[in-house]
Each structure stands twice: as C-alpha cells, then as structure tokens.
Amino acid sequence: MFTEMKLSAWSTGVRSKLSLPLRVELWNGEHVDLSSDPPRVTIRVPKPASLRYLLSPTLYNLGRAYVEGALEIRGRAADMIRIGSELAAAEGKAERRSNPLRLLSPHTRQKDAEAIRYHYDVSNDFYAAWLDPNMVYSCAYFENGDEDLASAQVKKIDHILRKIDVRPGQSLLDIGCGWGALAIRAAREFGARCVGITLSENQAALARERVAQAGLDQQVEIRLQDYRDLTGQFDRITSVGMFEHVGVQHLPEYFSKIDSLLAPGGVVMNHGITTTDVAHRSTPYGGGEFIDQYVFPQGELAHLSAVIKAMQQGGLEVRDVENLRRHYARTCALWTENFESHFDTIGRLTDARRQRIWHVYLAGCAYAFAHDWISLYQIVGAKAGEDPAQMPWSRRYMYP
C-alpha cells in the first residue's frame, strides 16, 4: 500500500508539471497514465522493488533499469529518451558530473585495446544490420539535407578527402580506420596510398577483405596497431571518430604524435565528438554515466577549446573548423530507425542485454546532439609555422 501511495504522489506531481504520453503498468495489473493522449511509451514495473528507478528518473537510472531488466519499457527509443529526459528535467536532475572513474583507469595500451574490443568487436554482422552498406560508423554529411544515409556517408568521406586536398600518389594515414571505407575510397577515387589502423580485430579482418575485393592490395594496408606505435611520415592524416578514446589529458601527446607523423607540407583532419561543457563533464540527466558504464568505457569528450589548445600544444596549427552537430543528430536518428527496423535480426546477432543497450544509446545520442549537449567538429590542421602560401586562399577548393 505504501508503495502505491508513493507512486500516486509521484504521478500527481509529474502531471502537475508535464503531460507525457506515458503509461506505467504495475505488477498487480493496475496502470497509471500521465496524459490523456494515447501512450507512446509503456513502462512496466514487474515488482515493487523496481519502482525506485522510476521515482528517481535520471537517464542513468532509467537506462540501467531497462538494460538490466528491472523495468520493461516498450516504445520507440526516440520516445523513450524524450520522455525520460522530460521526467528527469521535472525532477531537476540536469547537473553535469565529472567521472572519478576516469582517474582510476589510465589510458594504457592494454586498457584502450580492451575498451575498443568491448565496443567494436560485438560482431561485424551486428554493425552491418544497421549501418550503411560501407559500414561507416561516424557522422554523415548531409550536403542538402535530403540524402539517404548511404549517400550522406559517401559525401562525408569525400568532404574529408577534399578538405585535406588529397592528391594522386600521396600517402594517407587513417587512424581508427573502422571497416576501411575511407582508405578504400581515398585509394580508388583519389589515387592515394593508404595505411589504416585499428585496435579491433573484427574491423581489421573485414577491412582487409574489402580491400582485397576492391583490388587495392597494392594501395591500401590495414594494420592492427596502436597509434602510439606508428612510425614514418605521411602526406595526409585523418582521424575520424577515434580521438574520443584518447583521454582529455592525453590530447597534447596525441596531437604531438600526429605532428611527428605528418610530412612537411602535410595536412591533418580530426573529426570527432566534443562536449559542450567547458569543464569536460558528462551530459546532463545521467546520460553520460550510462554511456561510461555500458557503451564507451575509457571514452572521454573534450570541449572544442581544449581540442584546439591541445593541437597547438602538439605542434599543429588549426586552419579550419566546421561544426556538424545537426548532421550527427540526423545520422544517429537514421541509425536508430535502422536498428528498430531490424530489431529481430539484431536480436539473433547479440544477447538481449546488449541489444537494449544499443537501442537506447543510439536514440540517446540523437537527442544529445539535437539538444547541444554534445557536438561534432571537423578540424583541419598542419604543422605550426609552415609557410601559409601553401594554403589555398579560400575554402572554395573544398566544395567543387
């Protein structure tokens, strides 16, 4: 009885602030609607002990309860995230927090490799079920806004390669090459000689297969290698969706390594997610804590200002910065749609717990980008102090 009274008081308080298309079903068959509109999301509380997650509705608590099966949540993930965020906002849970666990888990080669394997080595078939055919797992580029995902991902790769002005015969290093899409296109369409590196064995294996299928064995090499172990020099360097794994404190070292690998007159592009919080704290409502625990162990987001500072500390001059935040919001929304369209197939490719993690993670990222909690920047740089006469006078070369 006391539990039902607490729920009644909570629902009355929520309805006084919000009208949410949410139904809460109890273990005894009763239910509570938080709006006169038909419910778009249903939360089933299977036992009284599970009610505590709902009565303290941060995104971390709700996400954890969903993933671990303490709450059963039905509905589209985008609706789950929106309703969860509004519940958390009504409770005043918007503070961003620092993550003390990061101080206890240094970015060693072993730790970073374990984190990469945890995230990327689910299975190649798992990713293929909801990514585009080229399996590009980073922000797409919607030049006109009406492109499908596959077209927007090709445009993103071309946008990057044009920004760094890749020319035939040049050497290109792709740090965090994924399944090889950028290296393959740079070789096939731009005539570059490419080296792609990854810490994921699954990615490396499939990327090598795709290089062979494209007949590019003489132009593209895929290595299972840590960026810290690289040697040599390259005319062009790309890092797409990788530096989020480096650690904020290690960014100057990371960019210094890139500087050492960049040939005189070379150009580098860093494409990565940033936080909009200048203190590098997690996203609000506990969303960051959820991602730290369940999705990206060892992941850290820096503010744009810290990235630019670290590039300068690493010996690089920033030459161009472009914000693609809304492009990533759309990319994640399309990934979420694909994920839900192939939900049964994905359920056969992984366990139910991991499926639930990814279900809310992708939608949560779409929401976070759309609401400016996180952002995405492409930053073009070169060795600091080089003759600026080597640079084009305008950005026109990027947009043929």
Order of helices and strands: HEEEHHEHHHHHEHEHEEHEHHEHHHE
Biggest beta sheet attributes: 7 strands, mixed
Structural class: alpha/beta
CATH superfamily of the largest domain: Vaccinia Virus protein VP39
Instruction: Give, in spatial order, the strands making up the sheet with the most strands.
Output: 7-6-5-8-9-11-10
Residue runs with pLDDT of under 50 for 5 or more positions:
none
What's the overall geometry?
A: elongated
Overview of this structure, please?
The protein is 44% helix and 17% strand. The chain is α/β, with parallel strands linked by helices and 400 residues long. It has two domains: 2-90, 2-Layer Sandwich (Nonspecific Lipid-transfer Protein, Chain A); 101-398, Rossmann fold. It has a seven-stranded mixed beta sheet, sandwiched between helices. Strands 2-1-3-4 form a four-stranded mixed beta sheet. Strand 8 (234-240), helix 11 and strand 9 form a beta-alpha-beta unit. Helix 4 packs across helix 16 and helix 11 packs across helix 13. It is elongated, with a radius of gyration of 23 Å.
